[in-house]
Write a structure and sequence with these properties.
118 residues, mainly alpha, 79% helix
């Protein structure tokens, strides 16, 4: 029986959520993992970039942006050695998002970002 992409993305997000809770004590607050899972399975590089561009409005929210950076980082690991084209686009977006965080956040927001992504 084939599994549809929405079911698959929900399962992938739950797996990421459990991994982050068990290994980092982090509680998920977004659907970013599902969003990018749908993108990388249904549209590839263009859909991944589009999903990232649609997420840029979250830069004003340190917690959401921090989670976005963590999801992008995990997606690099997820695709490395399996699909290097996707791993490379996730790496580029992760670098962009991480740089945007450092350039944007100040004070306690920047401390939160570093503590959470460390």
């Amino acid at each position: 029986m084939a599994i549809n992409i929405l079911t698959y993305s929900a399962m992938a997000e739950k797996s990421w959520e459990n991994f982050m809770r068990e290994n980092c004590g982090y509680e998920r607050i977004s659907t970013f993992y599902s969003d990018f899972t749908i993108a990388d399975h249904c549209g590839g590089v263009n859909a991944i970039k589009d999903t990232f561009n649609r997420s840029k409005h979250w830069l004003s929210n340190v917690k959401m942006w921090t989670e976005l950076v963590m999801v992008l980082n995990h997606k690099i690991w997820n695709w490395y050695g399996k699909n290097n084209e996707l791993a490379e686009v996730y790496n580029e977006l992760w670098e962009t998002a991480a740089n945007m965080a450092v350039e944007t956040f100040k004070g306690e927001d920047l401390s939160y970002y570093y503590r959470t992504t460390d």
